[in-house]
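User: Hi! Is it possible to get a structure for several chains at once, not just one? Here's what I have:
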Amino acid sequence: MSVVGGRVAVVVVLASVLLFVAWGLAPEAALFRDAQSQHALLALASVLKLGLLVAGALVAFACRDRLEDGNPARPAWALLAAGLFATLAGQLSLAPYQLFSGQSPFPSVGDLFYVLSYPFFIAAFLVFLRAYREAGFPMGSAAERVGIVAGVGLLAILLAVVILRPVAAAGGADLLERILSVAYPVLDLVLLLPLALLLRVALRLGTSRAGLVWGELLAGFVFLCLSDMLFAYLTALGQQHLDPYTHACYVLAYGLVTGGALQQLRLLKA
Amino acid sequence: MLASDAVQVMVRVMSPYIGDTMARSAAEAHCRRLGVGAGPLSDQQLEALLVKVGGGLNIFLGREKAATVIAEVRRELQQTGAVAR
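Assistant: Yes, the chains can be modeled jointly so their relative placement is included. Here is the combined structure:
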């Protein structure tokens, strides 16, 4: 993607995020009130997510391709691409419902792919961490790493208690729906552990070119975790009218992850 | 040339790619692993340090780009007279 194309994509993503936030803030405004507008906005969210995921998965795979055999970061980019392809498959399964009937069924076959994406993402981050350690980059002492994981783990448990209690206790929902509503936030909290260790690396990269890669990637995954938790929480509480915020978070998350992968590809090509 | 001067050159060249903090801590960590002290660097030690630092850059930049950056470090070191032309 050219620099101009990249800037246009950033503007489109940010404008869409603002539109979804406005929808959440003022659902009774003329622009958002009728069912037709809501269907159009859901279709827009669906198309944006598809586009960003296609771009993100292809770019992440291109990063893997640009790295030579034996480069320890190569399998990490392959796993990241696999995770994005799995998420794309999930979104593709949902897209016909969102585009043609204005509905987002939950649970659906798409959830199979969304859940499948997590092992890929978690493995990708673990491989990145190992690659950086083996390459001699300072990763902190064992005590420091244990401290970070324990701190984030504790925060994750606190969040889990707050978020999962109403999700698990939600009456009326079928068993699969409740299992998935609990599984997403739990998987996100597990994902946060390697992310926290990578954040330590990212902070040392500062505003350098590799720092921009990791800044965008990590911010994207933080928003992805936030989106899943928001989705589970709002679904469990029957607060679907707040879905626009979830769409905004997902679009931002996919946009940031794709942006990070694109920065990496540019760095490899430069 | 002193190890600290060589590290200074490496940090200057690598910082646009991996940042000042990471470049410095990576170069200093490699010095420690290679047993390079604060004193003057031998040619062999400098060469080993460049190989290690280049290997680390591979992760972020790929082999081709990392080699270009290390070549730039060598050029700067040559200008200071630390590496034989």
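Chain A has a mean pLDDT of 90. The interface with chain B takes residues 66-68, 71-73, 131-132, 135-138, 201, 204-211, 213, 267-268, 270 of chain A (CB under 8 Å).

User: Great, thank you!
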